[in-house]
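Here is the promised in-class demo. Please do not try to memorize the tokens; focus on the logic of going from shape to residues.
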């Protein structure tokens, strides 16, 4: 169906007439006005409103309308979702003899997504950064053993170990950032 037919206006209609037709049809077919109707009617009205909106998107925009009118004259209007003609050109193909890129595939295969090391700030592994994790694991292990053996000293050690690991999780990164800032 042609966009002009959807809005019920002639092809040479002025923009004000097209807008009036759109508003009139939108008031008549908008789904919010048909909430109490049966589901079939609501579905029909919803589809009709989509057609009206598509027609308004094309005919309400002067550039799109000019392209649509040109397509109508050439007999190919209405083939795209908004009345715009989709591109039907030949897909891209390489020129004859333009296949040297295929020989370089080995270097692409060997590439990695890993970032190169930063030459300004080389990354140093700090063994102290493992301490909070080790203390936490020790605390969990001693806590489990303390519960199984009902040994209060092991439960106390577990509590101290987990508390120390929590404190170190916070303080060690702050100290590392402070040292880095002093170096910079």
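The designed amino acids, position by position:
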């Amino acid at each position: 169906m042609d966009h002009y037919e959807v809005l019920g206006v002639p092809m040479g209609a002025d923009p004000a007439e097209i807008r009036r037709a759109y508003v009139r049809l939108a008031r008549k077919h908008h789904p919010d006005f048909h909430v109490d109707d049966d589901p079939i009617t609501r579905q029909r009205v919803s589809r009709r409103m989509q057609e009206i909106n598509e027609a308004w998107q094309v005919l309400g925009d002067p550039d799109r309308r000019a392209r649509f009118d040109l397509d109508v004259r050439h007999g190919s209007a209405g083939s795209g979702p908004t009345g715009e003609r989709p591109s039907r050109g030949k897909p891209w193909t390489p020129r004859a003899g333009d296949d040297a890129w295929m020989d370089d595939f080995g270097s692409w295969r060997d590439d990695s997504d890993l970032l190169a090391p930063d030459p300004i700030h080389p990354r140093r592994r700090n063994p102290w950064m493992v301490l909070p994790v080790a203390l936490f694991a020790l605390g969990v292990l001693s806590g489990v053993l303390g519960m199984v053996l009902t040994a209060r000293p092991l439960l106390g050690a577990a509590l101290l170990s987990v508390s120390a690991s929590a404190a170190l999780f916070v303080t060690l990164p702050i100290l590392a950032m402070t040292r880095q800032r002093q170096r910079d």
